[in-house]
Amino acid sequence: MRQNVVTAVSKRDREIMADNRERLGSFQLFLADNILSCGCEHINFLQWLQLTSVQLDNNRNFTCINSEGVFTYTLVYLQLEDLWRQCWGRWFLNFSFILLFVFVIGHLLVFLWVKNKTVIISNVFQFFTNLRLKKVSDYRYGVFIGYCNFDYQFACVTLREYIEEKLKLTTFLQDRDLLPSSAVSEGIMEAMTSSYRILLVVNESFVKQNDWFLFTVRSAVYSVTPNNPFRVVIIVEEAQVKQLPTELFNCIPEDNVIRINEWLLDYKLKESLRTRLQ
Questions:
Q1: What is the pLDDT along the chain (278 residues), one digit of tens a residue?
Q2: Where are the transmembrane segments (predicted)?
């Protein structure tokens, strides 16, 4: 096969030569004066030239042309790992970047879904159906205020006055509006159902001394619906954030959790309440 136009030996031909060598005891192949291919598509052929037990001429060093069209020799590629990296390294690098991109986007979508599930569902329903978002006029009360009886001053006085006088929204307070003859659980559920917004004032007392803490929080979770996805608003002490049930954060937007360090109705808190309650 010398002085021919052979560029490579196919896998089938290599297998035939290997069988002949085993059957005959020896086999010779002369490839000198051919311009072989040492491009990426013939890495297996280059490896075969180095490892085969078939006797080759020219000390197994043949003229070849690489993927860039440059003449070289097969013995240049004794370290096939370098050629493999040159041929496939960029492809695998790009593939790795694509996987990383898909991984990051996937985690971001999952994070957004977990944090804004109700809002996303609401937007989908609004887009594909005639779903109408509820308005404050659709409810009996403007704001249900959930608080602890041990710290009623901020919720029942300071906060209530701002909501009723400045925001012009009616409020429901358990100590003021819940009838003595009504069961507490039923009264809370009915009041939440009848309220446009549910405002939970979460401090240490609300978490540790309020017997109705978990019931109130979980009732608020169940009250969030696609036609009122921003229904629940929370004012919480920074130190008490970890005490809130995880399902609460899964159903309300992150922006509706107002974190504070001190119970002071300053301008920042007023603006946060105004944009979330109205």
A1: 788 888 888 889 888 888 888 888 888 888 888 888 888 888 888 888 888 888 898 888 889 888 888 888 888 888 877 778 777 777 788 888 899 999 999 888 887 776 676 677 777 777 777 778 889 999 999 999 998 877 788 999 999 999 999 999 999 998 889 887 778 888 889 999 999 999 999 888 887 766 778 888 888 888 888 888 899 999 998 888 888 887 777 788 888 999 999 889 999 999 999 999 98
A2: 91-114
pTM over 0.90: no
Q: How far apart are CA 110 and CA 117, in angstroms?
A: 10
* Strand partners for 63: 73
Assigned domain for 221 exists: yes
* DSSP code for 121: H
Q: Based on the domain organization, do 123 and 142 belong to the same domain?
A: no
Structural domain range at position 186: 136-277
**Alpha helix locations (H) across the chain?**
11-24, 43-51, 80-128, 152, 160-161, 174-177, 184-193, 204-208, 213-223, 246-251, 267-277
Q: Return the closest-CA partner of residue 169 out of 160, 156, 178.
A: 160
Query: 63 with 108, same domain?
Result: no
